[in-house]
Write a structure and sequence with these properties.
The chain is mainly alpha-helical. The protein has 9 helices and 4 strands.
Length: about 270
């Protein structure tokens, strides 16, 4: 008989249901825009083949997505992504503007979510989930060596940690935040050359390594502390950018005043 539990560091816990894995994958594709609103999902047969699960599992996953308001079934036509999904947290993915203050707000939300998710991942992750975190870490390293954009892999690293909590709501929040999760990425509304230097990204990777090591060591408090330090450092980097903008503005005002010629002529 196949056990329905996973044992890690002497702790036995229920395995994630197969349907939850399908739900998480489809939800991620929808929020990433890979399956846009109004688009039909793959057929039941295609989904069973893609995920290597039974039709019963696929139907259970679709039922969950429908209950969340993300998809709807149309008789004789198939299952479609809703135009205005009502999934919890879905509104987070709406455009909030191209502002540094919004980037700081997103990081604050992430601190409320990801510090605890790192601790739970250290306790709950299985071998496959730990491998996914490591794969994302080394893919970041590979892209950095090639001088390519690392934002998507950065997101994959944090998402893999959320998935390792075995609580799908942690993943759901990150998926809803989408591209805003990694404000420094070149594709983000807040990405600029000032935060995309190699030194900057190497610093991120050093912080990632501390998080990874703590999770691999099954040390939840160290994992929480490492994630807190990582996100706090990111917040401070953006606050420095805000202060820099203010300084540039004041310097510009000073130059403008200095360039003005006083009017000393007499009235006639």
């Amino acid at each position: 008989m196949v056990s329905n539990t996973v044992e890690t560091s002497g702790e036995r816990r229920p395995r994630p249901k197969l349907s939850e894995r399908v739900v998480a994958a489809l939800r991620s594709q929808v929020f990433a825009g890979e399956i846009p609103p109004g688009r039909k999902l793959p057929t039941e047969n295609q989904l069973t083949e893609t995920f290597g699960v039974s039709r019963t599992v696929v139907r259970e996953a679709i039922a969950t997505l429908a209950a969340d308001g993300l998809v709807e079934s149309r008789q004789g036509a198939g299952v479609f992504v809703r135009d205005h999904p009502t999934l919890a947290f879905g509104s987070i993915s709406l455009d909030v503007g191209n502002k540094l203050s919004q980037a700081i707000n997103v990081l604050e939300v992430r601190m409320g979510i990801e510090i605890e998710s790192a601790g739970l991942a250290a306790l709950r992750r299985n071998s496959a989930q730990e491998a996914q975190i490591q794969e994302a870490f080394f893919e970041f390293e590979r892209l950095l060596a090639l001088d390519q954009a690392t934002g998507k892999t950065d997101f994959a690293f944090h998402r893999a940690i959320a998935a390792a909590t075995n609580n799908p709501f942690y993943v759901e929040v990150l998926d809803a935040l989408g591209a805003r999760t990694i404000p420094c990425d070149v594709t983000s509304p807040w990405g600029t050359e000032s935060v995309l230097t190699r030194d900057y990204q190497e610093g991120l990777q050093r912080e990632h390594l501390v998080i990874l090591n703590a999770i691999s060591a099954s040390d939840p408090q160290a994992a929480r502390d490492a994630m807190r330090q990582h996100l706090s450092a990111s917040q401070e980097r953006y606050r420095r950018r805000l202060r820099g903008q203010q300084a540039d503005y004041l310097a510009g005002m000073g130059k403008a005043h200095a360039s003005r010629t006083p009017q000393t002529g007499k009235k006639t």
